[in-house]
Specification:
mainly beta; OB fold (Dihydrolipoamide Acetyltransferase, E2P); four-stranded antiparallel β-sheet; elongated
Length: about 110
């Protein structure tokens, strides 16, 4: 327990929390371009072929992003919208993207 004089001299230090999606750099979503679309296998108790893509974000960071839902029309050079969140059974993908939208048609 600090004394009043110690608090006057130094003050309280604030605790900083680590971000769960560092690649988004504080943004709710980011635009990116697919560099590779492929499948990945999940961790131990589960078995499947999860659809994922390597995405180069507008911030210049390249991440691995999960493609949700059944079926997709993504390929290399597709422009996608990436949001934060992770897929629990895919290892090493903490900056995982959950919603993908192919925005090729809406870009002017």
């Amino acid at each position: 327990m600090p004394t009043i004089q110690q608090l006057v001299r130094q003050g309280r230090s604030t605790k900083f929390s680590k971000t769960k999606t560092p690649a988004l750099k504080g943004s709710p979503q980011r635009r990116g371009v697919c560099t590779r679309v492929y499948t990945n296998t999940p961790k131990k108790p589960n078995s499947a072929l999860r659809k994922v893509a390597r995405v180069r974000l507008s911030s210049g960071v390249e991440i691995t992003a999960y493609i949700p839902g059944e079926g997709h029309n993504l390929q290399e050079h597709s422009i996608v919208l990436v949001r934060g969140g992770r897929v629990r059974d895919l290892p090493g993908e903490r900056t995982d993207a959950k919603t993908f939208r192919d925005t090729n048609r809406s870009m002017v």
